[in-house]
């Protein structure tokens, strides 16, 4: 048996080694703390530099890089939270499915966002149409509308939202619940209006545009028809008010619904589709496949149809959509911190039309722009700018004039400009009623000596900035997975004074059951603390302007109509100015 001699260090040597280890560890901790401190200081220095010089491009690159690093570091935590919310959402969906027989699914994205509303600003889109009847009986119009909804809209699978109620579950998610039976008389009713004039219609809509919808505001639409006509240009026009909750769809989706399913144009399109399908069937029945070799011939054709051009194009589109979606999600992870920080730099507007608590009483006004659409296009082409630039310039001039009436105009306003994601329209065509919008904010110059160039720079900054992309995916993901308790405070915006929306409508006059629609006006709802909404709807060569404002911001109803009318006059003024200078 052999023994190994183990030498143990003496106490002084051991104490010295421990001290050396502690010293090395302390040095490493100090270096790590110094590195973290330097990184934090560098981040805040970059943020301060960006806040001071956020209009210059020199401050954007370092801040964007630092924010991208922060986004990459935080992405595992965010993904883990979304994973937990996803599991919670699956449990909620399964439970609601077993509890309610008429359950039609949880709301996604922007549908849930617009279901977050307060009594002072209900998320209801108001559309006014003026209809000239082909017959003298006004009761025929209401009957025609009831028949259209029953035969064309409520029976369409893609329009299932029109048959649903909007409800909030105990899990904190909004969901769709199909009505047992849609009482059409509750949804299509008469206006409580004895005398119909332009002024009485303005007053009526001001009082009713923020009213709750049927079924204790759980239903999503209603239509009001006037019993008496309005005489204009020798025509007897009956006003029809369409009130649709924004959870049903955005403005573009509603216009698409109007053209594809509501007007008489859709009937001719359906007849053409049916006739084309019948012709194809006749060709197949009388063609060369009707012989003894029919079965094997069709089998060979079915095998080779995979390689036909239509199938390849469809497959190619799906591949492009998948790759585009993946790249956009990666971009959002990298750019979201920078975009959110940049939007926080806007600050909260402090001016005459922002800051007061909204009370829910609205003033509305509208104006018809005969030839305005052509004039805006002329200005756009001559100045080599965008369509929106011309509209923003007119809005800036009109509100500078309004502020000057009551005090000093502010330097600028924060304006919310919604947009629709174009690639979603191209690849997702299965559902007509959708909310595929996104939002961006700009600082609209008001008191600026070189206003047009300032407006153009501000609008160009939004076009080149990733706000639209990031906000779209944040809205789509966060509003889908996060419960309402957390979502309500996270999605509230208090920065903007004004919201602007431009909706392109049909190029020619349309008909409802043979009745000609002469004018359309679109009013977008207020949201959060933004109590001023300016909307444009082009229809049959016209551009009609609408304004909705909370009475806490503009107490006099005449001012709302005056501002809308000034929009048309301002575009005329810009048009003649450009025409005189450019020839």
From TrEMBL:
Keywords: Membrane, Transmembrane, Transmembrane helix
GO annotation, cellular component aspect: plasma membrane
Stated name of the protein: O-acyltransferase WSD1 C-terminal domain-containing protein
Gene Ontology MF: a single term: O-acyltransferase activity
InterPro entries: O-acyltransferase_WSD1-like (IPR045034), O-acyltransferase_WSD1_C (IPR009721)
Parts of the chain that traverse the membrane: 63-91
PANTHER family for the chain: O-ACYLTRANSFERASE (WSD1-LIKE) FAMILY PROTEIN, WAX ESTER SYNTHASE_DIACYLGLYCEROL ACYLTRANSFERASE 4-RELATED
Origin: domain of life: Eukaryota
Domain O-acyltransferase WSD1 C-terminal: 435-571
GO BP term (any one): triglyceride biosynthetic process
Pfam families on file: WS_DGAT_C
């Amino acid at each position: 048996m052999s023994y190994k001699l183990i030498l143990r260090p003496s106490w002084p040597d051991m104490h010295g080694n421990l001290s050396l280890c502690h010293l090395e560890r302390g040095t490493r901790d100090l270096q790590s703390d110094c590195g973290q401190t330097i990184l934090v200081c560098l981040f805040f220095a970059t943020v301060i530099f960006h806040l001071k010089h956020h209009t210059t491009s020199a401050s954007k690159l370092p801040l964007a890089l630092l924010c991208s690093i922060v986004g990459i570091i935080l992405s595992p935590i965010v993904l883990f939270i979304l994973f937990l919310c996803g599991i919670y959402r699956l449990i909620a969906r399964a439970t609601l499915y077993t509890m309610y027989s008429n359950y039609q699914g949880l709301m996604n994205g922007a549908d849930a966002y617009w279901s977050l509303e307060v009594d002072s600003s209900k998320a209801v889109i108001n559309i006014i149409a003026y209809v000239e009847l082909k017959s003298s009986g006004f009761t025929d119009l209401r009957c025609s509308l009831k028949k259209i909804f029953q035969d064309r809209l409520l029976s369409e699978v893609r329009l299932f939202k029109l048959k649903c109620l909007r409800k909030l579950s105990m899990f904190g998610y909004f969901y769709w619940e199909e009505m047992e039976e849609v009482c059409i008389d509750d949804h299509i009713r008469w206006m409580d209006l004895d005398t119909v004039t332009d002024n009485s219609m303005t007053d009526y809509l001001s009082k009713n545009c923020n009213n709750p919808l049927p079924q204790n505001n759980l239903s999503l639409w209603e239509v009001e028809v006037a019993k008496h006509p309005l005489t204009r240009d020798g025509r007897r026009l009956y006003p029809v008010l369409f009130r649709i909750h924004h959870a049903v769809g955005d403005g573009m989706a509603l216009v698409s619904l109007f053209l594809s399913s509501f007007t008489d144009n859709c009937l001719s399109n359906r007849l053409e589709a049916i006739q084309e399908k019948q012709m194809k069937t006749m060709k197949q029945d009388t063609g060369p496949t009707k012989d003894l070799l029919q079965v094997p011939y069709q089998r060979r054709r079915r095998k080779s149809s995979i390689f036909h051009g239509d199938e390849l194009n469809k497959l190619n589109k799906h591949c492009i959509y998948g790759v585009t979606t993946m790249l956009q999600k990666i971009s959002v992870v990298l750019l979201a911190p920078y975009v959110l920080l940049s939007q926080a730099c806007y600050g909260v507007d402090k001016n005459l039309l922002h800051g007061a608590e909204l009370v829910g009483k609205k003033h509305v006004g509208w104006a018809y722009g005969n030839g305005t659409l052509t004039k805006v296009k002329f200005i756009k082409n001559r100045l080599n700018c965008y369509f929106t630039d011309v509209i923003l310039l007119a809005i800036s001039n009109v509100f500078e004039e309004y502020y000057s009436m009551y005090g000093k105009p502010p330097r600028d306003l924060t304006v919310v400009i919604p947009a629709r994601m174009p690639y979603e329209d191209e690849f997702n065509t299965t559902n007509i009623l959708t909310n595929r919008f996104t939002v961006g904010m700009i600082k609209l110059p008001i008191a600026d000596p070189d206003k047009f160039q300032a407006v153009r720079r501000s609008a160009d900054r939004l076009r080149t900035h990733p706000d639209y992309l990031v906000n779209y995916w944040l809205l789509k993901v966060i509003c889908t997975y996060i419960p309402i308790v957390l979502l309500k405070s996270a999605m509230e915006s208090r920065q903007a004074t004004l919201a602007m929306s431009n909706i392109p409508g049909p190029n020619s006059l349309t008909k409802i059951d043979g009745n000609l629609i002469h004018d359309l006006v679109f009013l977008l709802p207020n949201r959060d603390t933004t109590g001023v909404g300016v909307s444009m709807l082009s229809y049959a060569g016209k551009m009609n302007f609408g304004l909705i404002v909370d009475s806490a911001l503009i107490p006099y109803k005449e001012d709302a109509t005056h501002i809308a009318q000034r929009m048309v006059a301002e575009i005329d003024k810009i048009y003649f100015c450009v025409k005189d200078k450019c020839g």
